[in-house]
Amino acid sequence: MKKIKDIRKEIGKIKKEGKIIGFVPTMGYLHKGHISLIRKAKKQSDYVVVSIFVNPTQFGPEEDFERYPRDIKRDIEILKNEKVDLLFNPEVDEMYKEDFKTWVYVDEFSEIFEGKFRPGHFKGVCTVVLKLFNIIQPDKAYFGWKDAQQLIIIKKMVNDLNIPVKIIPCPTIREEDGLASSSRNVYLDERERSKALCLYRALKRIEQLVKKEKIYNREILLKEGRTIIEKEENVELQYLEMVKINDLKKVEKVEKGTIILGAIKIGKIRLIDNLLIKKF
After folding, report:
1. Fold (topology level) of 183-274
2. Is 95 helix (H, G, I), strand (E, B) or coil?
């Protein structure tokens, strides 16, 4: 379905039946990570809605909105195979009317890390996610830890604005070589993909130092991680930081709820990844 009025009519019927609605928002070009979210939603909900919408408001002027990978026919086949109940695939002018003026912004959380390198990104993300929540009215919404800052910001938005949606965080899904599944991985050639793994290796090295060598000091851990990334030629380290999972504030030593966030750039391609330290 492409029209908001049609989606609302259908959702109204489902709600009258008392069914639990699970929602998976995506920008399409579905991969294993998306499929894992859909399968979790299928297990926990009676009726699963997936949206496919490449949201222009979360892309900066120099970013890849126009060339962002799209293949709606392929995506529809995947959704059919996964027995998804409803697809919402609106056009841009359906989501943003000509006189659109209203935005949602989570202060402080949106200005650091990804927000620093992609100004306005999270304003676009929060606005479109809230619009989708208002249109779909799900009971549960599923987001992957791969985009950790996004997940934390959306949880904050939902809590602050009393939105009646339960946010379900889901594990990062990785390719066989360890690269986090992402629609943008299609941009990488074989050489770039090999280089991209340096971020994952850095995160795993930090995890090893924490769990096996009982090193908890921020400077030691991040120095070790940065060294691994900086050894890789033609890879730009944009950030590698250790923060609290609830408020994204830096910590000096590993504690409960610590997450390591990282981003690199290879040519024009930006990749993000993270590691949640659960036990140490």
Report:
1. Pantoate--beta-alanine Ligase; Chain: A,domain 2 (3.30.1300)
2. helix
